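Please check our next protein.
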Amino acid sequence: MTAPRSEGGHIRVYLVDDHAMVRRGLRSYLEFVEDMEVVGEAADGQTAVDVVSALVADGRAPHVVLMDLLMPGTDGVTATRLLTQRCAGVAVVAMTSYSEVDRIRGALEAGAAGYLLKDAEAEDVVDGIRKAHRGEMPLGPAISRQLAHAFSAPGRTALDTLTAREHEVLVLLASGLSNREIAHRLAISERTARTHVSSILDKLGLRSRTQAALYAIQQGLEPASPPP
């Protein structure tokens, strides 16, 4: 399934958090963001999976799901795994606290596109939603390196299996660039960029571009400067 399109330029957002005040606060803020639309909310993971699956079947899939990780019943990690399995093209962004590194790791392994800290500024949350919608990876810089060291990743020998071009692409991945932006930076087609990313994941034995980005950080690769 391809990623859902933005009709009228709006990014459709679905909120998942067991605290009503958190959901209300996020909704109140996002409703005033010109290019965003909150299409629903849930207080637990199973409800989120059921409702988002129904929205996908009805052709009204959210583009981004903001997922709390610590909830009663079906937690955010399990819900993320179910959503990424059933609703390809819907980006799940984990919302977590600084101390929950293990849960963040679990969410990324489950297929989350990235994570945001709960104490992030509202503007950072909006920026993270936009990044996820563009196919980039919102990663809170405060704990990215800590998370990279906690993340299970291949060793340096695996890095040596990459070609020079794949190494360039991996560095760009570490800075959160999408395939389109990587293609622009390297003057190649988006299809070629996508092929390089797939080859990198295969050679390193990783399952997602987010894992590849964390691996690059773990190996000390310097993120690229933002594109001009």
About this structure: The first helix runs from residue 20 to 30. Residues 52 and 61 are 7 Å apart (CA to CA).
